[in-house]
Design brief:
Strand order of the largest sheet: 9-10-16-15-12-17
Radius of gyration: 35 Å
Structural class: alpha+beta
Number of helices: 23
């Protein structure tokens, strides 16, 4: 029996560490979080200093029981969860569970942390244990309480006012607002025309005049040439003629400026920069990046045992350990030459105000493990990400890249042109980590002041300003980081939540807000402006950072936040109508009925309606076409939507054919009950010929489904989505797996159908179900009566539980 119990978060990490510690230790995994707030209202009680009620997560109960059992037999317990606030909180939860079950009284409970999973790091951590850091636990508790209070009060308000299933979050909502605001900027953007003037100099061919190059106009009429100085073709043509006349076929070199430019390497990765670079270079989503990084951190079998290959990947520190720097410098000298190694190590300053969540930047645990050495042991994605991390860390300790630059200026009358050249003379860190900012060689010919260069052509070039680009995952992470919103560990989950809630769509790897996303963002911006304000959210993060440093208590922060927030929620619940929250727009009047035409958000997306719910006649509804937006659709465009269903004609068999839009999108209907999805053609534009092609394909597909037919009895054996089945149009009966469908006889099919329930009546209208329903009503009434009797007892229990729930 092992003397010591060490607890980590993941089973992969447990397997790796178990090999390092030997028989003295048993290593178990908690499988992530072990407790969470009870999933109902009242889990955080503002009336009792925000006492928090926790319960063990169902899926992890068996793992918790295993930990408790092992802890009873251990002499010492080591809590080795991740080294950030979240990891500290998980360790605290485990310690609290052990305390509640009377396990750790009298037993030493140690907190150990390490930023890499290597034998040296693990043994060093075991030798240098510490106590649980209350300040980190408090910061995580405060964050969890804030997220709960916002989510549990703002999300139900969205359900009442907009539609069910929506959510709002303390950090998620500002991120959504960023995407929506950018989309609005793009929609409002008006392109402006402007012109540049370029000169082609040198020679058109390869002769004694030398190589061809370009120069750009930088001064006009003695003044600096600005972007919008020339805004039309006629002015551009006039400038061209003016310069051509002054040049008389040649440009004279007025000034030559030569200098050397040095470009320093970027720091090693932190979480956000890793996510951004992996998105740009490898086309990974933030979620994919973090999944692969987790695998590299927890350990890979390298042929000599399982070993963690990178340091902890949730960090905002750019620092490197002294040992790591020394090893990286040795690798640089060996692999790339002494000339690429600076005299002293390079040090970098973190941008984050509170870069204390991890000890180091993301780096290889051993620089000697070059990517090529590990390639055969890694998957393609693991290799590519490891190579990116290794290259960046090694490059960060190399000498700068050195460029020779030259600028030649040509005075032509009252105008000045400039030509720039750049030559890489010493690649330095670019040998390892070339990036988008690395300048390509752009050599100019040898020029001297006073020299004359032939003019080939003056070229006016037309341009138009472009709208700001939509956010990609990389640029959204950068924006969140720049504003100070969220933490390294939250960026991936923020983006995933926006996708899961269908608030955004990815088009060409760029975020576009959906109609739902826009409505939610507008509702929050109008009615909860303070809580989606970027500065307010960032200040709240600063306050949480201060708590993690032990500078502030967490309860006063929550009190300051809570009362104004819940007052705003209560006020908006009364004052904001559902129609206002759904951003309903009245477009005008339907000329046929005289009723109002409204566009609004519904359960399945934006739609137009003619008439009101309170009218005697039921309103007419029509879904918006692809590309149409609630904010911009006109009355004429909305009225076009009500021309569906469209009668297109008939099939060769005389079946009527219609085009329409339904709950699941556009479709073609033929006959009474046959439907074909329309994917590439708009139902407003589809022709009979196009529809008939789809109908023919659909009929062939139905024909291919038939395994066997008993035509006289109207019974068929068909291929179904979940396997073969027998049908007579009224009942369906699945064919058992051990039966060959084609071998079934008519009698066997009839027997199977007789035993099958009617289609559409599986418990919906059956007598048994109806009976159950009545019984359940009686049960409910009894329950209500018993609840009234027990209400006093329950109230007293509630008070007791509140006191018990406060953090120890």
């Amino acid at each position: 029996m092992a003397k010591n119990l060490l607890i980590v978060e993941s089973p992969a990490k447990a397997t790796t560490i178990n090999k390092y510690l030997g028989k003295e230790f048993e290593v178990l995994a908690s499988y992530g979080h072990v407790r969470d707030l009870v999933p109902k209202e009242g889990a955080v009680d503002p009336e009792q200093d925000f006492a928090m009620k926790y319960d063990i997560i169902d899926r992890n109960k068996k793992h918790v029981d295993k930990i408790v059992k092992a802890a009873k037999n251990a002499e010492a317990i080591y809590l080795a969860t991740d080294l950030d606030r979240e990891g500290e909180a998980i360790s605290w939860h485990i310690a609290e569970i052990l305390k509640d079950r009377g396990v750790n009284s009298g037993k030493p409970v140690h907190r150990v942390v390490f930023s890499e999973i290597t034998p040296k790091a693990i043994k060093k951590a075991i030798e240098q244990p510490r106590e649980l850091a209350d300040s980190l636990v408090d910061a995580q508790q405060a964050r969890r309480a804030l997220d709960y209070l916002v989510g549990f009060n703002l999300s139900p308000l969205l359900w009442k006012k907009v539609r069910r299933g929506l959510s709002a979050g303390r950090v998620q909502s500002p991120a959504l607002c960023m995407i929506v605001e950018r989309e609005e900027e793009i929609e409002k953007f008006e392109a402006r025309e402007y012109w540049s003037i370029e000169a082609d100099l040198g020679s058109e061919g390869e002769d004694e005049e030398g190589q061809a190059f370009q120069a750009n106009l930088v001064k006009l009429d003695g003044e600096k040439f600005e972007q919008f100085d020339i805004t039309d073709a006629s002015r551009a043509e006039a400038v061209r003629k003016q310069i051509e006349e002054a040049a008389a076929g040649r440009f004279e070199v007025a000034r030559i400026t030569k200098r050397q430019r040095r470009r320093r390497a970027q720091p090693p990765f932190i979480t956000s920069t890793l996510q951004q670079e992996a998105a740009r270079r490898l086309r990974f989503t933030t979620r994919r990046t973090m999944q692969i990084a987790q695998q590299l951190y927890e350990g890979i079998d390298t042929g000599q045992g399982t070993e963690g290959l990178i340091t902890y990947m949730r960090t905002d520190s750019v620092a490197l350990a002294g040992d790591a720097i020394n090893e990286i410098r040795q690798v640089i000298e060996c692999e790339y030459g002494a000339e690429t190694l600076p005299e002293k190590p390079n040090f970098y300053q973190s941008k984050s105000k509170n870069a204390q969540e991890a000890h180091e930047a993301i780096r290889p645990t051993s620089a000697a493990l070059t990517p090529i050495k590990l390639k055969s042991h890694l998957s393609d994605d693991q290799y590519r990400l490891y190579q990116l991390i290794w290259n960046r860390a090694v490059a960060s300790q190399m000498v700068p890249a050195v460029y020779d630059t030259v600028a030649a200026e040509f005075d032509v009358g009252d105008a000045t042109f400039r030509a720039n050249g750049s030559t890489l003379v010493a690649p330095g860190f670019l040998k390892v980590y070339a990036d988008a900012q690395a300048d390509k060689d752009n050599r100019l010919p040898e020029l001297d002041e006073g020299a004359s260069v032939p003019l080939v052509a003056i070229r006016p070039e037309q341009h138009f300003t472009e709208p700001p680009p939509r956010y990609s995952e990389a640029s959204l992470v950068k924006a969140l980081e720049d504003y100070g919103i969220g933490r390294p560990s939250t960026y991936s989950s923020i983006i995933q939540t926006l996708k899961d809630r269908e608030y955004v769509e990815l088009e060409s790897r760029r975020f576009t807000p959906t109609a739902t996303g826009r409505v939610v963002a507008k509702f929050l911006s109008q009615h909860f402006d303070r809580y989606v304000d970027y500065d307010f959210t960032a200040r709240l993060e600063d306050e949480l950072d201060a708590i993690s440093r032990g500078e502030h208590d967490w309860v006063p922060l929550l009190k300051e936040f809570w009362q104004p927030f819940i007052d705003r929620v209560n006020e908006k619940e009364e004052s904001v109508s559902r129609q206002e929250a759904q951003q309903a727009r009245e477009l005008g009047t339907d000329p046929k009925s005289g009723k109002p035409v409204i566009v609004r958000l519904g359960r399945y997306g934006p739609f137009a309606q003619i008439g009101q719910a309170e009218d005697e006649e039921k309103p007419e509804f029509a879904g918006l076409r692809q590309g149409q937006k609630m904010e911009t659709i006109t009355l004429e465009e909305a009225l076009e939507l009500f021309k569906l269903p469209r009668d297109l004609g008939e099939t060769p068999d005389g079946e009527p054919v219609q085009a329409n839009i339904g709950r699941f999108g556009p479709y073609i209907r033929y006959g009474k009950r046959n439907f074909v999805s329309l994917k590439d053609v708009d139902p407003h534009d589809v022709t009979l010929e196009q529809a008939l092609e789809l109908v023919a394909e659909h009929k062939q597909m139905l024909k291919d489904r038939i395994i066997k037919t008993f035509e006289a009895e109207g019974i068929e054996i068909l291929k179904g989505r979940y396997g073969p089945f027998v049908t007579d149009g009224k009942r369906n009966a699945s064919v058992p797996k051990d039966v060959e469908p084609a071998d079934l006889t008519l009698e066997e099919c009839q027997k199977m159908l007789a035993e099958a329930p009617p289609k559409g009546r599986r418990g919906k209208f059956g007598k048994k179900k109806a009976g159950k329903k009545k019984a359940s009503k009686k049960k409910t009434s009894k329950k209500k009566a018993s609840k009234k009797k027990a209400s006093k007892k329950k109230a007293s229990k509630k008070k007791a539980s509140k006191k018990k729930a406060s953090k120890k």
